[in-house]
Amino acid sequence: MSTIGDKYLLGSGRSDHDRxxxxxxxxxxxxxxxxxxxxxxxxxxxxxxxxGLGYVTxxxxxxxxxxxxxxxxxxxxxxxxxxxxxxxxKTAQFRSANIxxxxxxxxxxDVSYSRWLMVHLNRPVEAMRAIYAALKPGGVMVCExxxxxxVYAEPASVAYTEMRDICMEGARQRGVDYTGGRRAHLWAxxxxxxxxxxxxxxxxxxTGEHKGFWNWTLRAVGHGMVKEGSLTxxxxxxxVAGMNEADASPDTLVGxxxxxxxxxxxxxxxxxxN
Length: 274
Ligand SMILES: C[S@@+](CC[C@H](N)C(=O)[O-])C[C@H]1O[C@@H](n2cnc3c(N)ncnc32)[C@H](O)[C@@H]1O
Known about the structure:
Elements: H1 14-37, E1 45-49, H2 55-62, E2 66-71, H3 74-86, E3 92-96, E4 109-115, H4 124-134, E5 135-147, E6 152-154, H5 158-173, H6 184-190, E7 194-201, E8 204-205, H7 213-228, H8 233-248, E9 253-255, E10 258-265
Parallel strand pairs: 1-2, 1-4, 2-3, 4-5
Antiparallel strand pairs: 5-10, 6-9, 7-10, 8-9
Helix pairs in contact: 5-7, 5-8, 7-8
The structure holds S-adenosylmethionine.
The site of S-adenosylmethionine has 23 residues, from helix 1 and strand 2.
């Protein structure tokens, strides 16, 4: 597990890549609609912060944008760049940088995007200030951030509830906020943005390959906590067994994390219009 970001607890490597692929499969359709709604069109300068394997960056390039994907994880960036090369995308670039110091020319970006990033950061408002500095006046910041407290199973699974709460408490102790999606608009206002649009959606599964996504994710965070010493391996195994049981039952509904969507604009003060 790499110690990247602000004590980012999800790993890198093959299994984490698989998880990022599933995130893309679950969310990309809604992400594309949100970006269109934000005014994303061909020819724009687009930057994705915390791009992971770069699915959204490659889509933006395939739509004709000059697209840059930024992340701290070199391993993910190498895969993202290779996938872009294989797809023949000439306007997709991937760079290693920290969102707090993204090394972008000030006021050069039309549309920024981030998903599942601010909830992993100790200083989300500062991260948004860095995005603000990179955006052109009138440019837009698009974010999709989670509220993990919405994860549940019905009939109730003690293992799901306990594992969710352990992970959320672990996050609190690391100074990050896994319920942060619901506060993303407040962070954006504090960073100087004008709020254009907010919404949220909440995936649910009773069967199918995506049902166990949160079992997988909570388990990945749990493994990080076992390595840190804040959770015992035995307790993690018990909780994973309980979540597996809930996933295997055709009667158990699993509600995923709620995903909050935000479009926020950098005011165009010189034009006198926001
Ligand atoms: C949960 S993953 C989400 C990846 C991608 N946005 C997606 O939705 O598939 C979070 C990503 O943020 C990156 N990250 C964490 N802290 C970062 C920071 N300070 N600056 C840039 N990227 C960071 C991680 O390396 C990881 O790739």
